[in-house]
Amino acid sequence: MRAALTGAGLEIEKLHYANALGLIGYYMATSVFKLMPKEGAMVKVYDKVVLPVTKAAEQIIRPPFGQSVFAVARTPS
Question: Does the pLDDT value for residue 44 go beyond 90?
Answer without folding.
Answer: no
